[in-house]
User: What shape does this take?
Amino acid sequence: MDLGLRDRRALILGASAGLGRAVAAALVAEGARVAICARNKARVEAAARELGARAGLACDLSVPGAATALVDTARQRLGGVDILVTNTGGPPKGRFTDVTVEMWQEGFQSLWLATVEAIRAALPGMRQQRWGRILLVTSTAAKEPIPGLSVSNGLRAGLLGLVKSLAPEVAEEGVTVNALLPGYTATALIAELGIPEEELAEHIPARRLGRPEELGAMAAFLASEQAGYVTGQAIAVDGGFIRGL
Ligand SMILES: NC(=O)c1ccc[n+]([C@@H]2O[C@H](COP(=O)([O-])OP(=O)(O)OC[C@H]3O[C@@H](n4cnc5c(N)ncnc54)[C@H](OP(=O)(O)O)[C@@H]3O)[C@@H](O)[C@H]2O)c1
Assistant: This one.
């Protein structure tokens, strides 16, 4: 199926590794012109070269204003931004009683405000051309809280409210807004947990971790021409992990 993504201009945040990188790879494979960002300059530039992306931009999304500046740079490098995929590293971990107000603020900046900033910067161009795709990479934690991840659970659930608020505001202008909820997926972040894969797999109906490219494929579809009538949705790629309706 031709997804109609040839020459579409896409900015993927947090994409030198893991899920963001897989999303970038899927869009490059469909012929999109892609810019990626991450904090480590050498790694993001190397990733852009390896992927065949147009730009690898160094940016720390935990810095206020950084996401706005990033969208401006990407717009200059690509000639515009038709597709925006928000993503970043995991927020601070901990049970509620272990999490300080500073940790909440840190998580809020990188998970929430950077997302809002990037959308605010990219949206006017999408509305003007009456075509746009906004995808928020969140987590199954948005629907099924994970013990010990209070910041992630709280903030990611809120992001689903943001998706539901924004999607109807811009639907008539050809802009779709959706959340992607990855379940346990084999990336460096999961390897760092130090929990054997078989142990994690016991909690997943598919009895295995996801592959990053499985999330990438869903992102490419949601960015596609064919997905123009899919908006305001939270779509899990989780091997059946979320049990709720
Ligand atoms: N993997 C899973 O199973 C899973 C499941 C559910 C949700 N998630 C969530 O999905 C997101 C991505 O996870 P992942 O597994 O792909 O992580 P990852 O493998 O650690 O990759 C994270 C990417 O984001 C970049 N990044 C991190 N912090 C950043 C910042 N402040 N500003 C800009 N770029 C930043 C990293 O590069 P630099 O370090 O160079 O910045 C890297 O390219 C995380 O929020 C994670 O919590 C993951």
